[in-house]
Amino acid sequence: MDEWQGYVQEEIRPQFEAKYSKKERMNPISGKPEPYQAFADKCSRLIVSASGIFFMICVVIAAVFGIVIYRVVTVSTFAAFKWALIRNNSQVATTGTAVCINFSIIMLLNVLYEKVALLLTNLEQPRTESEWENSFTLKMFLFQFVNLNSSTFYIAFFLGRFTGHPGAYLRLINKWRLEECHPSGCLIDLCMQMGIIMVLKQTWNNFMELGYPLIQNWWTRRKLRQEHGSHRKASFPQWEKDYNLQPMNAYGLFDEYLEMILQFGFTTIFVAAFPLAPLLALLNNIIEIRLDAYKFVTQWRRPLASRAKDIGIWYGILEGIGILSVITNAFVIAVTSDFIPRLVYAYKYGPCAGQGEAGQKCMVGYVNASLSVFLVSDFENRSEPASNGSEFSGSPLKYCRYRDYRDPPHAPVPYGYTLQFWHVLAARLAFIIVFEHLVFCIKHLISYLIPDLPKDLRDRMRREKYLIQEMMYEAELERLQKERKERKKNGKSYHNEWP
């Protein structure tokens, strides 16, 4: 019933009607002719639009690959820098500069994505305004979400995973070694990435929302003073002063929704790696509430009000982000952090192995167990260390340690994965499955216990719907009985009349 009412009440877009006015067909619901878009035409337009979306996502991935190349090249450059401060902190310097460059690319591509999304949406020729808004919203969200989070996904799940091991490093164009994580783990790089981008993006958004209209209004007032003089401007009526303010953007509250949705995704998808993200988002939103109030009251013209049944496609996007955040946090805890390897060591390989308990004493020897042995003579020629280590120990070093679970060089299969590696891998996969199912079960349980509509309100809505149906039935019954009486008065009768 509700879908039928929404279908009938929503008008066709003028652009759609002008494009397909020559071809009409009968609407099966309203019984009236309306413009019709052929199935082949609709499919071809959707295929072109999907291709455009795929191409723009590939542009984002290419930008991320460019940042990866920058990090690979720069980390070796900073490691040989003449300043000791940069040379000793080459990893941090590389990550910081890469994040700033990545943020600049994100902001530049966002301008391009809006124009591309508008072009592709108009190319699809949606039938109604709600279809146009949903299509445009989905494209803008996909573009900006991938643009904002692609580098974060790379750091969380790919950085340092495919670098090889000493003696068999993987290299870019057979020259530069792929970048590895910070010695303390990849979470440090992930925290830096999220912290810098979040602070810079929120600062930039607040400036564009308030600072830019302030500058534009100041420039408008300056022009009015030059044209009419300060005394003439002071005598303007209020409506003319309001007219000289900045108009609201063409998409209404779309930018506000998009900003909040992207912030929600950024704070929830990797909250396990950056727990301060929700706090920063809360502080930003407290400030932004007052900035938005000031902007709407003093810097923008009064917007035109429009009625909306709900938040539309944004609800589905929020549901999707919630599901994705559970999955990504499970992978962050299991893959990116050391939580699972520490548990495996405590229960299987540590001093408390087989005792069913874990504590601080059970982690003795964990660092040593997480490091593998490498024979120095097995280094590649271009990877050989500058010195043999005799200045530290008095004699040349024969072995070095690196972070991995591999067999020693004299094993039957040198540098092959150890049994501990497979135990850790199995524990990671098991944790991901258990964690996801547990969180989703809790989510559905809470949704069942706390419904969207209270029971008394739902009963009142059902009661109202029932009374409306009864009124419609009684009105129709009264009309038919009245017609029957009129027919009898006129001497006309029909067999099998109802009622």
Question: What does this entry look like structurally?
Answer:
- 66% of the residues lie in helices and 5% in strands.
- α3 packs parallel to α6 (129-157), α7 (186-234) packs parallel to α10 and α9 (254-269) runs parallel beside α11 (313-336).
- The chain has helices at residues 2-9, 14-19, 39-79, 84-88, 90-124, 129-157, 186-234, 238-243, 254-269, 277-299, 313-336, 339-349, 366-369, 390-393, 419-449, 455-489; strands spanning 24-26, 33-35, 164-165, 168-169, 171-172, 176-177, 371-375, 399-403.
- The protein has 499 residues and is mainly alpha-helical.
- The strands form four sheets. Strands 1-2 form a two-stranded antiparallel sheet.
- It starts with a helix and ends in a 10-residue tail after the last helix.
- The protein folds into four domains: 11-180, no CATH class; 185-336, no CATH class; 348-354 and 361-449, no CATH class; 451-483.
- β5 and β6 form a beta hairpin.
- The longest helix is centred in the middle third of the chain and has 49 residues, at 186-234.
- The chain is built from 16 helices and eight strands.
Identify the notable features of this structure and list them briefly.
single chain, about 500 residues, mainly alpha, two-stranded antiparallel ribbon, 16 helices, about 65% helix, about 5% strand, extended, intracellularly calcium-gated chloride channel activity
